[in-house]
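FIELD: query
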Amino acid sequence: MTRRVSGATAVELHVPDLGLAKLFYGRLGFRVERQESASDDKGYLVLRRDEAILCFWGGTPAVRRHPYFGRFPRTAKRGYGVEIVVPVADVRRVYAVARRARCVVEDLRLRPWGVRDFRIEDPFGYYVRFTEKHDVQAEAPRAARHPPSVRRAREPRRR
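FIELD: result
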């Protein structure tokens, strides 16, 4: 049976070790949907957890020779400025697993918009948020729209 992701945005992470990606994300409840050998420097791995799908390309140090990503120093933080969001039904259980894996960078907490989440850094340096399932298109509760730490500057009055 062929499964297609239609109309969805896919995340593809370039990593030097598909085995490590499979092991790490497997502990967090992801299952293999597709796997191609990395022996030819073009391995591919697709992992799924409920509706969340993560794709991994490479699987060997050849990812550092990629025409675009190869321009950056090896010490550059992978995924800088990007947060990968994974909705889960059992955020507390996933948090317990992540704590045992010592990858949590922001503890589980209730956010002002009424959802619990936590953040991790995966073995490759990607920043991933695990969150309770919620409707991201729904309007946030009034108190969460403009938290005190992010107050808008008032525009000057026009005369």
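FIELD: remark
Residues 11-75+82-137 form a domain with the 2,3-Dihydroxybiphenyl 1,2-Dioxygenase; domain 1 fold (CATH 3.10.180.10).
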